Every structure is written in structure tokens, then in C-alpha cells.
């Protein structure tokens, strides 16, 4: 790759202007002072999305099985089927979880699990049909490209036919989990059996072509180089160009990134992970590089509430979602949090100077929460919530 021909200040000016950056220019951003990169990223965030608003989604993660035969070295969530604490949820157990989500006004489930060789196509289609029949207002974003690849290989269907079958049963979207770093050299070291980048994009591309919701993801901290991170971002940008051009504008709805968590995993002590500084730097560079992805999420499960709040000034315009039950990142460390309450996300946004809004998974605003009620603020005590310090 040729070196960036611009000086640091020329590069920052170009970044802040919103002009598309080349690979050497993106890579050169890693060598610049973070406050200046952050200023360019925040400026772009303010111009590309409503400057006053920070959004979040009320949803629930449901991990329908923890049995998995992929065995990623960075995963503390999966079990073999012989392990005592392996599980596969039946439809009624999943319904019970959805009822809890409905009780707090949630609108979406993120339904993902391990690659469980004991499950047949009927389990997946039956599950989707069950959820649609019993919870008609709940949107189902389900199955990472890894799970879809397993189904494609196992059930004798082409990718198109498989997706059509799942859509017919009720699938609304395909979360873009498993992106990590979409460079196979990095993936092969971290998880030899993991879905390769070409398959990840092939499945995402088909989903976007069929009108399904998708997001792009990134995880840093495997020991990947800046060139590999840059290549990851450029592949996402290229896919987004294709989707926006060819699939009626149905590209990635957003971009989410977090740092590798290695507790209880085989990568513990072997992968460097990433500090808060690196996370914020990478987030800011993603905002600059991904000029065609409007929504950039801050990640509280891996980074904690405080860093996620800071991320709102490093390019993020969204706080992700409440999740109600996050199991995968938290199993490998994270901040020990499995969920966020609506009140906690409201407080993070308000204290950072933004107006919180509740969105759907397509990032359309569906409600403006009553901030004063949520934070127990009254005329006598407008700072009430600050005094008790709810969020940590
Ligand atoms: S990350 Fe997913 S595919 Fe990899 S071992 Fe864990 S559950 Fe299986």
C-alpha cells in the first residue's frame, strides 16, 4: 500500500469535510492525535445524523442454544453437547423471555445461538413461526452468517432458497454478528473453523438483496494490524456501496464495534485485547472511513457505560440496545453486564448533552421517552438522578 501523501492537518481537514478517504489515508489516521481524529469524527456525526439525538432500541437477546461445534478460541459462551450446562431452549421458554420484553415495551428480539448440529431446519422455521404467531408485534432479527452457513451446508438448500424459507417463516433481519476482523489471516488464528470473510459477505449480500435488515460489526484486539483494520472497514464500505446501489438502498443499517474479551477463553493471555483509548480511536476512524453507513453504535456490553457514553463524542450517535439478556460478550469478561435498563440509557444520553430517542432496528425513531419521569426529576430537584448516581 502506498503511503498517505497528505500532512496530518491536511488529512484531518479532508476527513472532517466528509470526502471519501483512501486506504493509505485511513491507515494514516491511526498515527494522529486522538483528540483531533475524534473532533473530525464528531463533526461528521453531527452532520450525518440529527445532532441533538442519541437513539437506542428496546430489545432482548435470546441465545436459543449454547451448543456449538465451531469452537472459536475467543468464545466462553459455547458448550459441547455433553457438557452439563449445555442447553437448547424450547419454544415456550423463548416465549416466556419475549413476554418479559413485551412487558417493558420492547419491539425486537435478537435471536442467535451456537452452531448446534442436532437442530434440524424444522427447529428454526418452527421457532420463527411460533414467535410470529404468539408475539405478532415483535420483530425477529436472527441467525448470524455463521449459523446461516451451517444451515446451508446441512439442509441441502441453496442460500437463496434457505433465506426464502426463513423469511417465509418470519425472519425480519440477519444480524451481522461474527464480523470481527474480516481478514482471513486474523480469523484463522483466532478461530480456525470460523466462517471466512468471503462467506460472511456472500451471506450478508444475499440478505441485503432480499431486503433483510443487517448491520456491520467489528471486534478489535486480536493483534491485528492497522492495515488489517483498514481493510476490514474498506470491505464494509464496498459492500455498502453495492447494497445501496443495487438493492434499493437496503444496506447495513448501522455499524457496531467492540473490543475482544478473553476471560475464560483459550485466547486469554495470548491476544492483546484493546484499551478504552484504542476503542475510541477505532470508533472515530470507523465514523470517518464509513462515509456511507449513517449509524454508528457505542457498545456498553464490552466497554461499560462510561466509555460508551464517551463514545458519543467519538463518532457514535446510538447506544445500541437494552438487550435484557446479553450472554456472549459477558461470558468472556465484558463489564459483567447482561442488560441495560431504559432509564440507564436515557441517563447516559441526557448527561452527555443529548436528547434520547427510542428507535426500531432500522434506526427509525418510534418514541421520545419522558426524560423527567425516567430520571425522577422534579422542579424542586432537577438534579435528583445525578445525586443518587444510577449509572456506573
Ligand atoms: S462465537 Fe459463535 S460460532 Fe464461535 S464458538 Fe462461540 S457460539 Fe460458536
UniProtKB/TrEMBL annotation:
Pfam families: CofH_C (PF19288), Radical_SAM (PF04055)
InterPro entries noted in UniProt: Aldolase_TIM (IPR013785), CofH/MnqC-like_C (IPR045567), Cyclic_DHFL_synthase_mqnC (IPR022431), F420 (IPR034405), FO_synthase_su2 (IPR020050), rSAM (IPR007197), rSAM_sf (IPR058240)
CDD domains to which the protein is assigned, alphabetical: Radical_SAM
Binding site for S-adenosyl-L-methionine: 74, 180
Cofactor: [4Fe-4S] cluster
One GO term (biological process): menaquinone biosynthetic process
Highest taxon above the source species: Bacteria
Pathway noted in the entry: Quinol/quinone metabolism; menaquinone biosynthesis
Keyword S-adenosyl-L-methionine set for record: yes
Catalytic activity: dehypoxanthine futalosine + S-adenosyl-L-methionine = cyclic dehypoxanthinylfutalosinate + 5'-deoxyadenosine + L-methionine + H(+)
Gene Ontology MF terms: 4 iron, 4 sulfur cluster binding; 7,8-didemethyl-8-hydroxy-5-deazariboflavin synthase activity; iron ion binding; oxidoreductase activity, acting on X-H and Y-H to form an X-Y bond; transferase activity, transferring alkyl or aryl (other than methyl) groups
Residues covered by the Radical SAM core domain: 54-306
Free-text remark on how the cofactor is bound: Binds 1 [4Fe-4S] cluster. The cluster is coordinated with 3 cysteines and an exchangeable S-adenosyl-L-methionine.
Enzyme class at the top of the EC tree: oxidoreductase
Binding annotation for (3R)-3-methyl-D-ornithine: 144, 299, 321
Keywords in alphabetical order: 4Fe-4S, Iron, Iron-sulfur, Menaquinone biosynthesis, Metal-binding, Oxidoreductase, S-adenosyl-L-methionine
EC number: 1.21.98.1
Record-listed [4Fe-4S] cluster binding positions: 68, 72, 75
NCBIfam families: CofH family radical SAM protein (TIGR00423), menaquin_MqnC (TIGR03699)
Membership in a protein family: Belongs to the radical SAM superfamily. MqnC family.
General function of this protein: Radical SAM enzyme that catalyzes the cyclization of dehypoxanthine futalosine (DHFL) into cyclic dehypoxanthine futalosine (CDHFL), a step in the biosynthesis of menaquinone (MK, vitamin K2).
Listed name of the protein: Cyclic dehypoxanthine futalosine synthase
Gene that encodes the chain: mqnC
Amino acid at each position: 500500500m502506498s503511503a498517505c501523501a497528505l500532512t496530518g492537518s491536511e488529512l484531518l481537514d479532508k476527513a472532517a469535510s466528509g470526502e471519501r478517504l483512501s486506504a493509505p489515508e485511513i491507515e494514516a489516521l491511526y498515527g494522529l492525535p486522538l483528540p483531533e481524529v475524534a473532533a473530525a469524527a464528531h463533526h461528521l456525526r453531527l452532520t450525518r445524523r440529527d445532532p441533538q439525538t442519541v437513539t437506542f432500541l428496546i430489545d432482548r437477546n435470546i441465545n436459543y442454544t449454547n451448543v456449538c461445534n465451531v469452537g472459536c478460541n475467543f468464545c466462553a459462551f459455547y458448550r459441547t453437547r455433553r457438557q452439563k450446562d449445555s442447553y437448547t431452549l424450547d419454544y415456550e421458554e423463548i416465549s416466556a423471555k419475549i413476554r418479559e420484553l413485551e412487558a417493558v415495551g420492547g419491539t425486537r428480539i435478537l435471536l442467535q445461538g451456537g452452531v448446534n448440529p442436532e437442530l434440524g431446519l424444522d427447529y428454526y422455521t418452527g421457532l420463527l413461526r411460533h414467535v410470529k404467531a404468539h408475539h405478532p408485534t415483535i420483530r425477529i432479527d436472527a441467525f448470524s452468517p455463521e449459523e446461516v452457513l451451517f444451515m446451508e451446508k446441512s439442509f441441502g438448500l441453496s442460500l437463496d432458497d434457505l433465506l426464502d424459507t426463513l423469511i417465509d417463516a418470519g425472519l425480519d433481519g440477519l444480524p451481522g454478528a461474527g464480523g470481527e476482523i474480516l481478514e482471513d489471516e486474523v480469523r484463522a488464528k483466532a478461530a480456525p473453523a470460523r466462517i471466512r470473510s468471503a462467506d460472511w459477505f456472500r451471506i450478508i449480500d444475499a440478505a441485503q438483496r432480499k431486503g433483510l435488515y443487517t448491520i456491520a460489526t467489528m471486534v478489535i484486539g486480536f493483534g491485528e494490524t492497522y492495515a488489517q483494520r483498514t481493510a476490514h472497514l474498506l470491505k464494509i464500505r464496498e459492500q455498502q456501496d453495492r447494497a445501496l446501489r443495487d438493492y434499493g438502498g437496503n444496506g447495513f443499517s448501522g455499524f457496531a464495534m467492540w473490543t475482544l474479551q478473553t476471560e475464560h477463553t483459550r485466547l486469554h493471555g495470548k491476544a492483546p485485547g484493546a484499551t478504552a483509548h484504542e476503542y475510541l480511536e477505532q470508533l472515530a476512524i470507523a465514523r470517518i472511513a464509513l462515509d456511507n453507513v449513517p449509524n454508528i453504535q457505542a457498545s456498553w456490553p464490552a466497554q461499560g457505560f462510561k466509555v460508551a457514553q464517551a463514545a458519543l463524542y467519538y463518532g457514535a450517535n446510538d447506544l445500541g440496545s437494552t438487550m435484557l439478556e446479553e450472554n456472549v460478550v459477558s461470558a468472556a469478561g465484558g463489564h459483567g453486564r447482561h442488560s441495560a435498563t431504559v432509564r440507564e440509557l436515557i441517563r447516559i444520553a441526557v448527561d452527555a448533552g443529548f436528547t434520547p430517542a427510542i428507535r426500531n432496528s432500522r434506526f427509525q425513531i418510534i418514541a421520545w421517552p419522558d426524560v423527567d419521569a425516567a430520571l425522577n426529576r422534579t422542579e424542586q430537584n432537577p438534579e435528583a438522578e445525578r445525586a443518587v448516581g444510577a449509572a456506573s
